[in-house]
């Protein structure tokens, strides 16, 4: 079968590979090269070594964006997963209307980040107006605004994954525990949570990378204001590329650093997952 | 569970659902108010004084050309997703069934691309797209295929590995060439995965803002770009128009969601388990 298939490479794999090369692979390699150069239009690149990286690290906006993104990611990963897991537990108890509730909780996820940002800008500004301020008055308003927005958007998505995980637990296991006199708390801690560990891993990975790479919501909700204090990494990189002449190389160096951070997070996650799989 | 607990739980979940729907309801109510009343009283029903009928909608459609944007969003999403499902399933099948250094290297490259954030290739990809004349609604389909191929090849590949090869071999022995084998035997088997891949890509491409804004500029606006352009440069936003356009942007998604919610929820769960 392999032999007869091999000739068909041109039809089966080549179109995707060409598109992949144009949209991802060549830009990726070029991006790494350009991060070591000074350029404005890609064709006039001049080698500057690690200069761009030095500038990126000594750039206060970048450092601030990194800290802001880190704090935001930690808070959102914890809150989203706690709420999503709690909802999943409630929705796997066989009460009526479960489907309707699931539908409602998942809905915000389908709305795009830009639209989500403006929806929450209205709500949060509406609340803050009572105190005579708005969301761009202080960085902490923007921070919590983003946390609330992300929770609203992602709780439903993660809930679906947790529900799938909980429903995979064999019913006899819980029955047996009940007969042995286990209290609900013990069932949760000793059976449910250990058995949905794979879902917990997937959900924390998804919330982690989604929070870390957040762009649209950040742009629409605060656009980084006041000043640049609520700019997250993705927004800061875009601003460096497109709003600051002569800094394209630094923008690209920031992007490489951003990629490395995301890659490290993904790798750590992978290692943890593997370790869990060995235990089972 | 005792009956009384069930009642309490149902009440609690109902309240929570209403809270979840609250932001959308507020946007809807405000879309009928005059622009000066939206920031002063966002949480009240429109009154005689604040109610302006459909004027925000008519003005907004004139200003933003949202119906045009809707058409572009629809065209780009449907054609990109169709191309992605068709071509990446073929690629995944080829890469899984033909064992060579090249195919396994390609497969790992596709998987690798999944962890690379868009910012890494943002600038260079835009330049290449410009050079190759891809900065138009047709060209962007190719870019979406390239950038979306990682997740899709990975998802299809995972499923194909679990499908026994015997059926395909039988088809080939019976005289099918690989193209016939794929379209008559393999592609129908892949249907559930195709739905998952289509849903994940639709959610991404329909809502994507940054990529089309960089590649298409302002010549061919999609819905997220049209909404963002309302904010404009330095002028203040017309909040009435903004609310009306937000409602129009959300409406098609909610209708689409209610029509195929079961597919979407199953697709998301399946996609997560594989990813």
Automatic annotation (TrEMBL), chain A:
The chain crosses the membrane at residues 12-34, 72-92, 104-123, 143-166, 187-208, 255-272. InterPro entries: ABC_transporter_permease (IPR051393), MetI-like (IPR000515), MetI-like_sf (IPR035906). One of its GO terms (biological process) is transmembrane transport. Residues 66-269 form the ABC transmembrane type-1 domain. It is found in: Cell membrane. Keywords: Cell membrane, Membrane, Transmembrane, Transmembrane helix, Transport. One of its GO terms (cellular component) is plasma membrane. Gene3D superfamilies: MetI-like. It is a multi-pass membrane protein. Belongs to the binding-protein-dependent transport system permease family. This is Binding-protein-dependent transport systems inner membrane component. It comes from Lachnoclostridium phytofermentans (strain ATCC 700394 / DSM 18823 / ISDg) (Clostridium phytofermentans).
């Amino acid at each position: 079968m392999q032999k007869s298939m091999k000739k068909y490479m041109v039809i089966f794999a080549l179109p995707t590979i060409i598109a992949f090369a144009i949209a991802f692979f060549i830009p990726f390699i070029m991006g790494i090269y350009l991060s070591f150069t000074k350029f404005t239009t890609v064709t006039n690149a001049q080698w500057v070594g690690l200069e761009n990286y030095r500038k990126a690290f000594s750039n206060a906006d970048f450092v601030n964006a990194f800290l802001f993104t880190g704090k935001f990611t930690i808070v959102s990963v914890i809150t989203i997963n706690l709420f999503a897991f709690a909802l999943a537990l409630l929705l796997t108890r066989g009460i009526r209307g479960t489907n309707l509730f699931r539908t409602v909780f998942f809905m915000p996820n389908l709305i795009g980040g830009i639209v989500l940002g403006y929806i929450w800008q209205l709500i949060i500004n509406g609340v803050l107006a009572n105190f005579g301020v708005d969301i761009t008055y202080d960085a902490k308003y923007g921070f919590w605004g983003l946390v609330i927005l992300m929770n609203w958007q992602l709780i439903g998505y993660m809930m679906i994954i947790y529900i799938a995980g909980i429903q995979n637990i064999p019913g006899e296991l819980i029955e047996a525990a009940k007969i042995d006199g286990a209290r609900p708390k013990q069932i949760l801690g000793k059976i449910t949570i250990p058995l949905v560990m794979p879902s917990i891993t997937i959900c924390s990975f998804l919330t982690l990378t989604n929070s870390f790479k957040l762009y649209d919501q950040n742009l629409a909700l605060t656009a980084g204001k006041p000043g640049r204090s609520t700019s997250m990494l993705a927004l800061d990189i875009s601003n460096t590329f497109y709003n600051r002449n002569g800094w394209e190389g630094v923008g690209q160096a920031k992007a490489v650093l951003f990629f490395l951070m995301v890659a490290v997070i993904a790798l750590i996650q992978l290692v943890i997952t593997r370790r869990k799989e060995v235990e089972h | 569970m005792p009956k009384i607990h069930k009642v309490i739980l149902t009440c609690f979940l109902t309240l929570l659902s209403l809270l979840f729907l609250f932001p959308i309801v507020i946007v809807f109510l405000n879309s009928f108010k005059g622009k000066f009343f939206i920031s002063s009283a966002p949480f009240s029903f429109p009154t005689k004084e604040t109610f302006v009928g459909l004027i925000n909608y008519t003005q907004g459609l004139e200003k933003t050309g949202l119906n045009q944007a809707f058409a572009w969003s629809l065209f780009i999403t449907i054609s990109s997703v169709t191309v992605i499902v068709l071509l990446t399933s073929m690629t995944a099948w080829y890469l899984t069934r033909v064992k060579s250094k090249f195919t396994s290297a390609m497969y790992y490259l596709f998987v690798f691309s999944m962890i690379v954030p868009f910012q890494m290739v943002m600038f260079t990809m835009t330049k290449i797209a410009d050079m190759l004349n891809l900065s138009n609604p047709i060209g962007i389909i190719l870019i979406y295929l390239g950038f979306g191929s990682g997740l899709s090849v990975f998802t299809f590949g995972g499923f194909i590995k679990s499908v026994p090869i015997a059926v395909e071999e039988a088809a080939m022995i019976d005289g099918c060439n690989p193209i016939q084998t794929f379209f008559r035997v393999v592609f129908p088997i892949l249907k559930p995965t195709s739905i998952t891949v289509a849903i994940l890509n639709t959610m991404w491409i329909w809502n994507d803002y940054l990529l089309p804004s960089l590649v298409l500029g302002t010549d061919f606006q999609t819905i997220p770009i049209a909404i963002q352009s309302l904010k404009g440069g330095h002028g203040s936003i017309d909040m009435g128009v903004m609310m009306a356009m937000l409602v129009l942007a959300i409406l098609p998604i909610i209708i689409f969601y209610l029509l195929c919610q079961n597919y979407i929820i199953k697709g998301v769960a399946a996609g997560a388990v594989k990813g």
